[in-house]
Design a protein that fits this description.
The protein has 117 residues and is mainly beta. It is built from no helices and 11 strands. It has strands spanning 2-7, 10-12, 18-26, 31-39, 46-52, 57-60, 68-73, 78-83, 92-100, 105-107, 111-115. Strands 2, 4, 5, 6, 9, 10 and 11 form a 7-stranded mixed beta sheet that branches. A hairpin with a 4-residue loop joins strand 5 (46-52) and strand 6 (57-60). It is globular and about 40 Å long. The model has no long low-confidence stretch (mean pLDDT 96).
Length: 117
């Protein structure tokens, strides 16, 4: 089992920055990929950024490329999402996600990010 907990959400002005963190526990060594998705009201859940150990790289959603960056801290079993140049359309619930080599998937509870003046 893998347990994921997000933190760092909040209210930020357009053009501002925010940093989200995801802490993983349990069978951490079995995780193949880990990253972030988001879902806004009336919009399908979309990829933000995911690191895949097999691919050896990170995929970013088109809408966040150049603005968002994920980073890993293997010692702490955490993955952060640095969000810069935030726009109102970035407003959503952000979910941490992990997939094991078995294919099993896990989701965090989500953290709200609101970009508004």
């Amino acid at each position: 089992q893998v347990h994921l907990v997000e933190s760092g959400g909040g209210l930020v002005q357009p053009g501002g920055s925010l940093r989200l963190s995801c802490a993983a526990s349990g069978s951490v060594s079995s995780i193949r990929s880990m990253g972030w998705y988001r879902q806004a009201p009336g919009i399908q859940r979309e990829l933000v950024a995911v690191f895949d150990r097999v691919a050896g790289g990170t995929n970013y959603g088109d809408s966040v490329k150049g603005r968002f960056t994920i980073s890993r801290d293997n010692a702490k079993n955490t993955m952060d999402l640095q969000m810069n140049s935030l726009k109102p359309e970035d407003t959503a619930v952000y979910y941490c996600h992990a997939q094991r080599y078995t294919g099993a998937q896990y989701w965090g509870q989500g953290t709200q990010v609101t970009v508004s003046s």
